[in-house]
Amino acid sequence: MTLVAGTTVRLKLAREVSPYGYFMTDGETEVLMHYTELVGHRPQIGQFYDVFLFFDSEDRIAATMKKPLIQLGQVARLAVADIHPKIGAFLEMGLGRQLLLPLSEQPELKELRPKRGDEVHVILAHDKIGRLVAKVAFEEELAELAFHAPQSWHNTWVEGWVTKTLKIGSFVMIDGGVLGFGAYGFIPADDRTRLLRLGERVKARVTFVREDGRVNLSMNQRKEVGRLEDSERILKFLKDRPNGAMPYSDETEADIIKQKFGISKGAFKRAIGKLMREGLVTQEGNWTKLTEQAAAAEQQGPPAGTGSGE
Fold it and tell me: Is 268 helix (H, G, I), strand (E, B) or coil?
């Protein structure tokens, strides 16, 4: 038998060597199980035990009775316990020790990399010199674990974890299933209210359930709901501006609208259109401003009798 780090094997307890621990054997090779790696009752010489193999602090293969959250070749979602800016993220793997997710496995843009508390879907693997390391799980591996979303999910809100984030959008593993692997989803860039980190927790609305069981997602409300909220936000913004005017209009570039109001240009135009139909704003070139009607209503304040009362 070849002893491979990252796997669980059944080994015989051969002997005790104080003050270190116990040597386990497959009949050919021995590995040390430190006293700190024991779980439960004192083990007995000659008995067989299931142990997980890993590398200790001196890069020697060792054994533990503790149960890891991930095995070699498996996919699991692991929490980010610590960050090293020059090495990568360290993930909690359930052994009282951490697993490295190297920078090479993370997005190039620093703001898209996971932070403490985020949870990343990874595969346990070996690096070039045989040490245990985490690699980001690809779409192919995750799709095999996901279930098909039902049509009843349409226009419902779901939550999940970002598995990949690109310029065109972000991929999300939605909560669900016995092991936490739900349906697989995609948030197009125009439906993100902000950039999303790898491993970030996100809440989004299902806009379309595809034939293959995957879903399209949006972080925005439905158009009719979003239009009302967006128009109220823009109206308040104008009322707080000097002279009730702002240098943003239908002609303003989409990225500026996104940065200023956190919505797409399409959503901005729908909200402005609603306010114009209600006679509350007008547009002149690159400017949008309150109408005299809206400005007068703002100056008059709420009708009499709407105060807090006696």
Answer: helix
Q: Alpha carbon of 34 to those of 38, 71, 180, 216: distances in Å? A: 7, 20, 33, 49
What 3-state class would DSSP assign to 168? coil
CATH T-level topology, domain 75-137: OB fold (Dihydrolipoamide Acetyltransferase, E2P) (2.40.50)
Q: Starting at the edge strand that comes first in sequence, how are the strands of the sheet with 287-290 ordered?
A: 245-246, 287-290, 281-284
Which H or E run includes 187? strand 184-188
Whose CA is closest to 196, among 210, 205, 208, 186?
Answer: 186
Chain length of the chain: 310
What are the tens digits of pLDDT across the range 135-182? 999 988 998 899 999 999 999 999 999 999 999 999 999 998 766 789
Residue 236 to residues 86, 207, 239, 251, 279, Cα–Cα distance (Å): 44, 29, 5, 21, 15
Q: Which fold has domain 223-298?
A: Arc Repressor Mutant, subunit A (1.10.10)
What's this model's pTM, rounded to 2 decimal places? 0.73
Q: Examine domains 75-137 and 142-218 and report if their fold is the same.
A: yes
Distance CA 152, CA 117 (A): 31
Q: How far apart are the first and last CA of the chain?
A: 85
**Phi, psi dihedral angles at 85 (to 5 degrees):** -60, -25
CATH number for the domain whose boundaries are 8-64: 2.40.50.140
What is the separation of C-alpha 73 from the centre of its chain, rounded to a whole number of angstroms? Answer: 21
Amino acid at 285: G
